[in-house]
Automatic annotation (TrEMBL):
Keywords: Hydrolase, Magnesium, Metal-binding, NAD. This is NAD(+) diphosphatase. The lineage of its organism: Bacteria, Pseudomonadati, Pseudomonadota, Alphaproteobacteria, Hyphomicrobiales. It catalyses: a 5'-end NAD(+)-phospho-ribonucleoside in mRNA + H2O = a 5'-end phospho-adenosine-phospho-ribonucleoside in mRNA + beta-nicotinamide D-ribonucleotide + 2 H(+). One of its GO terms (molecular function) is hydrolase activity. PROSITE patterns: NUDIX, NUDIX_BOX. Belongs to the Nudix hydrolase family. NudC subfamily.
Length: 314
């Protein structure tokens, strides 16, 4: 068997999905107990203010800027006591922090835009989008883990938001990432796509589901496809992954080989599930399908899975 590492592309597919462009030095091994306080004393510090699943953006001459300095962050009532130190970029501290000022009270020069719209509309560059994913996930985790899961007492933020410590029982808790398998099932010249009841009109996508404890990625891909569509899979191969800050997941993209084609969709999970030919799927990618059907936007890993298959040689 050949060793495929050195045959792989220099830039793996994961680098081309939304939220994956983070270039911050996270400094995970060099975080002191007062690292946030030290970072906030640096006048160069840059802050990403967030609230209720929305990123606050400065708007000037039609250009959105997500980076606030300390003075600017005060204008949206950023809660610096709960700030997360994401790391540094070119020696400049980078933080994320919750904003207290509600979106309806913002001045005209500042907009609060939900994370999905920020990435779908390409409002900020890849590096900032990656920082958004990191900051949103860590802020969400800290909010949802304010109490120790071992003894139930309040926990305290440590290491700039990368650890929570329980002073009552001494337990340390660390950020979690929920793994999700997302898979494109293929059978000869067709692929399997489904749509959930919450999807945009005409949108079809790859199937997906959480990986369960004690389960391999490949086993999760096979199980989810069988449960949702009644399709048994043979070979499964990994393609790419994507940070997904809703609230703190990692999408793990795979291709699966269908062993049968008779669909038995779980209509409690899916509104519809069907096979699409390669040419029909290409029209959906290009937003030219005669019925107005489409695939997810280019930033989504589902889009990359579908496009990779469509552009392949079969």
């Amino acid at each position: 068997m050949s060793f495929r590492l050195f045959d792989a592309p220099l830039r793996e597919p994961s680098q081309f999905v939304g939220f994956a462009g983070n270039r911050i030095d996270r400094q995970s091994e060099n975080r002191s107990s007062d690292c946030v306080e030290v970072a906030l004393k640096d006048h160069r510090a840059r802050i990403l203010p967030m609230r209720d699943g929305r990123l606050y953006l400065k708007l000037k001459d039609g250009v959105f800027d997500p980076w606030f300095n300390l003075t600017e962050s005060a204008s949206v009532e950023t809660q610096l006591a709960e700030a997360i130190l994401l790391g540094s970029s070119d020696g400049i501290p980078i933080l994320a922090a919750p904003a207290a000022l509600a979106s309806e009270a913002l001045p005209e020069t500042i907009k609060a835009i939900d994370y999905r719209s920020v990435y779908i509309q390409g409002l900020i560059d890849e590096a900032a989008l990656g920082a958004l994913a990191q900051g949103a996930a860590l802020l969400s985790w800290n909010v949802s883990h304010r109490f120790c899961s071992k003894c139930g007492n309040p926990s305290e933020m440590r290491a700039g938001g990368y650890r929570r410590h329980c002073p009552a029982c001494g337990t340390d808790h660390f950020p979690r990432t929920d793994p999700v398998a997302i898979m494109l099932t293929v059978s000869r010249e067709q692929c399997l796509l489904g749509r959930g009841p919450h999807f945009a009109p005409g949108m079809y996508s790859s199937l997906a589901g959480f990986i369960e404890p004690g389960e391999t990625i490949e086993a999760a891909v096979r199980r989810e496809t069988l449960e949702e569509a009644g399709i048994r899979l043979g070979r499964v191969v990994y393609h790419a992954s994507q940070p997904w800050p809703f609230p703190y997941s990692l999408m793990i993209g795979c291709f699966g080989e269908a062993l049968n084609e008779d669909i038995h969709a779980d209509l409690n999970e899916l509104e519809d599930c069907r096979w699409f030919s390669r040419e029909e799927t290409r029209l959906m990618l290009e937003r030219r399908h005669p019925e107005g059907l489409m695939t997810p936007p280019p930033g989504a890993i589902a889009h990359h899975l579908i496009k990779t298959w469509v552009d392949s040689e079969g």
